[in-house]
Design goal:
- With 96 residues, the protein is α+β, with helices and mostly antiparallel strands.
- 38% of the residues lie in helices and 31% in strands.
- The longest helix has 22 residues.
- The radius of gyration is 13 Å and the shape is globular.
- The mean pLDDT is 82.
Length: 96
């Protein structure tokens, strides 16, 4: 994952492993029923990483980027949603 805030992202992911993925604002936020975001800040800007949860508490990082505006760009959401669908399809095929 190409994130420019690796130490902060690492700290948040360690907390997610220890306490579960839903840390709440300001660390994580639900974007939809199965898409969530990790929120980081640094000198380069505001970092975001979208993730989903799989069976057995597995966290899958779908997409990361540095925000340039206050609002999350639709393009970034579309990438994360497409990857989420790929993960769901692969999971269904492996469990049938």
């Amino acid at each position: 994952m190409a994130c420019r805030h690796p130490s902060q992202l690492r700290g948040i992911t360690i907390r997610m492993i220890e306490h579960g993925p839903y840390l709440g604002f300001p660390h994580t936020r639900a974007m939809s029923d199965s898409l969530f975001e990790i929120r980081t800040k640094g000198a380069e800007g505001i970092g975001r990483a979208f993730f989903c949860m799989l069976v057995e508490r597995r966290i899958v990082i779908l997409h990361s980027f540095i925000k340039k505006t206050d609002k999350t760009p639709q393009r970034e959401l579309n990438i994360a949603r497409a990857r989420l669908q790929e993960v769901k399809n692969a999971t269904r095929q492996n469990h049938i």
